[in-house]
Amino acid sequence: MGEETGLAMHNQGWKQERANVSLPEVHQSLKIPKTGSWFRKFLAFAGPGYLVAVGYMDPGNWATDIAGGSMFGYSLLFVILLSNIMAMLLQSLAGKLGIVTGRDLAQACRDHYSKPVSMALWVLCELAIAACDLAEVLGTAIALNLLFGIPIIYGVIITVLDVFIVLLLQNKGFRYIEALVITLIGTIGVCFLIEIIWAKPDAGGVLAGFAPSMELFRNPEMLYIGIGILGATVMPHNLYLHSSIVQTRQIEQTPKGKRQAIRFATADSTIALTLALFINAAILIIAAATFHTTGNTAIAEIGDAYHMLAPLLGTGAASVLFGIALLAAGQNATLTGTLAGQIVMEGFLNIRLPAWLRRLITRLIAVVPAIIVLAIVGDSGTADLLILSQVILSLQLSFAVIPLVKFTSDKTKMGEFANRLWMNITAWTVAAIIAGLNIYLLYQTFADWFS
């Protein structure tokens, strides 16, 4: 009876029956215990949230956090907090869409929109994934250069080998991917915890930074960096990713089973994003405590931050830990970018390529432009490339957020799980804020380029 109820709900409000499941090789591959404590069940659900959280601490975030901390001290911590709260709301909706409908966001878009609109959304999403992959490739290459002296252009080529890591793990089972991601997040967290202890930030200044400030709207430069932080924090491909990977759990296809799954998935992503909030805030706090307070307010590049940390904190280990954390962040974002690429292509186009080929295509879309730019302008072009990748992500964001809010608000698609009125108002407000701020960010960026 449960399975029939589930199928009825899957087809409710949709034009076509669901043709394929999302990520078929791992779909419903993890069993959830039917008995036992709340904590045991929560542990069985825990994992997807950490894969999503990776996108909130990828190398693209580092540049904006470092620039914000070095230029304005602790003032932009409020923006990081606000971005994370928005992310928690949107990721909870993405998880709910996947659990209730059995479709990921890409599959839902393909069903709901006309073919031209659906294809346009696919192209935009592929651009966003390529931009995100570019930030990850550059982050990993910069880390390899800083730690081992490998030229950045060779580091970019080395990142192509990541393809094989993902394939190996996916063949072993989804829990292996989750375990590696959580280990790498833990590594980043420990590195920054040690850095914060060494940096000795002003506790009062940190607390004040989390409070809203009108200076953000009075200072155009601060607003620009603030919007950059928001653009780098909320990632469009993460919404597609989350709506798919929550379906790796074998849940009861009944209203009660889905309600429980939504509760656990939301708790999982909220805890994981709180950890991402700590890491993002830590980067900004370290930049504020180390650079801003010593008058180094122009540090905006990852390489500069790496070289300046050791002399300012009085220990060479500070730069090494920073480099290790950057390498872990780049590798982590690579893993989740791979999965997102597969979900988006299969969901929008309903075609399946061998995993290694799909991964190679995604990686080359990022690696080729990086190699061309580095060959023309040298390593100094990496900062501009990172900023460009964040601008492309900002441009694409609303094209993922608006369909997500629209679908989860629709009673014919979601049944009793459709967003309540308060959730609808909140979600549409967040969508409007993100759209407005990103339009402003793009306007400012292009105005700077042409001036």
UniProtKB/TrEMBL annotation:
It is found in: Cell membrane; Membrane. Coiled coil: none annotated. Keywords: Cell membrane, Ion transport, Membrane, Symport, Transmembrane, Transmembrane helix, Transport. It is a multi-pass membrane protein. The chain crosses the membrane at residues 38-56, 76-99, 120-142, 148-169, 176-198, 222-241, 262-288, 308-329, 360-379, 385-405, 425-443. Its main location: membrane. It comes from the Bacteria. It holds the Pfam family Nramp. H(+)-stimulated, divalent metal cation uptake system. Belongs to the NRAMP family. This is Divalent metal cation transporter MntH. It comes from Paenibacillus terricola.
